[in-house]
Task: structure prediction
Amino acid sequence: MPLAPDSLEPTISIGEILAEVVATTIGSGFSEPIPMIGPFPSGAPTSFLVQCSRIGGSAAMIGAVGDDAFGQLNLERMKREGVDVSGITVDPDLPTGTAFVRYRPDGTRDFVFNLWTSAAGRLAWTDAVDAVVSRAGHLHVVGTVLGVPALWSMVERAAQKVRTRGGTVSFDPNMRKELQSDRKTAARVYAMLAMTDLLLPSGDELLLAAVMPPQNSEEQAIKYLFSLGISEIVIKRGAHGSTAYQMAGGVSHAPAFAVEEIDPTGAGDCFGGAYVATRRLGLSVDQALIYANAAGARNVTRRGPMEGAGSRSELDAFIAGTERITCSS
Amino acid sequence: MPLAPDSLEPTISIGEILAEVVATTIGSGFSEPIPMIGPFPSGAPTSFLVQCSRIGGSAAMIGAVGDDAFGQLNLERMKREGVDVSGITVDPDLPTGTAFVRYRPDGTRDFVFNLWTSAAGRLAWTDAVDAVVSRAGHLHVVGTVLGVPALWSMVERAAQKVRTRGGTVSFDPNMRKELQSDRKTAARVYAMLAMTDLLLPSGDELLLAAVMPPQNSEEQAIKYLFSLGISEIVIKRGAHGSTAYQMAGGVSHAPAFAVEEIDPTGAGDCFGGAYVATRRLGLSVDQALIYANAAGARNVTRRGPMEGAGSRSELDAFIAGTERITCSS
Result:
């Protein structure tokens, strides 16, 4: 079904809240001291919600931070950006999650994480969480939580509650190949797709999400995913722009913006946050795709996973002033 | 009793292994992205042992790291410096501990730790640990482990084993005032003092270690501590040098070296590592004090908690080329 309107209350997400530290030199690994910059507020769901809120959507986060400076950093940023933090638990024992990132010469990344062994992994369904979920209009799910049993059961419970009251669900697979080899996680991908209204895969995730071998075409995957009840599929293609397929019929495409990439982390989350928010606010698929492309592109021009998230007027200015990439393929 | 000679096999220590990231600007807290440098291999026991080994002592570490780049960083450094790492466990689930440090204008520090909730906190007595402890000649204990029940029981067990075979024990209180208010930890300080041969307090820790109110004199504290069976007390006084008291009689003092301080972290650990190693190698108290002062001073001239640890020839050169601080007090 079409995304629930923003008047039906906030878009929520459940998952990791992190402090991120980024190496400022290109290279491999962390085997010697190198210059870095941080901490940046981080986490796929929080980057998504900050962009969602900046562009005018209502947003609320469910997650956990430690009782430390990195937790404060994240809480302050979300508050400043208008994201409701009442569903965030401050864990008295475990620290806020951390991510160290270094870019290699080939554009791939080396990470050192403290993720599900941080406060983020000990999230539980409290009264405060229940209150936020009970008034949510839309749930956005990032694939990372599918590998974590405790968080997955919270996602299932939240999705059921949100859908029961007429809300909708979006799913950004954010999947790595490792996930396929884990049977339990693969089963959760099926369960997730069955309750998804809007699917937001990257180009190479579409077949993974549809659990199809690579010889299948994009059209076959789309057809199969629509048969599961998904109503809208938006494929993120990086420099090749993005394409939206609607079950009701219609394919839209919007070209990418030409920007100098400083830090690609968070581009997909800002894309999703802008797309979900603008659709819920009543914009057309074509308009939403342009804002989503702009949000992703603007975000990569700043270091940090959500430092480039734009307001509607900032994105309007960005759209007016930035060239599109013309791809022949 | 006098420290067991180095021929009786390695000096060991049990405790935290960390990756440390240091902010390169002076200021308060971590509320916004700032330039940093890291990861540096870190941890009070590892800094101690690296200095111990560099100056010619045999050294072995007991601790735990995660199965990640920060664990590798620490293992590689210790191996390179000749510290036996056979007693180090690689935890399959928990990450290597981390410490973020920022210096304030007044010289105090802001920290964000993932310490006992990292792999470091899940250390257990394995066969590999037993093998290392069974051939150890000296155990060095850093006060931080006194607050952690699981590590404290390992320290007690190791101390008993080492002492039974004629080995000795040193104790660097490294105490914060918070510890005093925790009764269980205070009880462990008593237990620790009862099995200590060499006590290495900082100036302001002497009365804390002796659990004496501040109106008591240094002499009263020393007398009390000797009555517990401690045979040697070396007080670290920073710019005021260091003083060694021996139960057998005799007080020695060595002035501090005049250096430009870049990063004070690790100074006390390098001091201790050099002192214990040189004493175990047969040097006199007077000689050991000079090397210990030099090791601490040289270490603060480099960023990172053990980057300035010196070999014997490096420290000889440092001693020959560095002025002493003359204090009037």
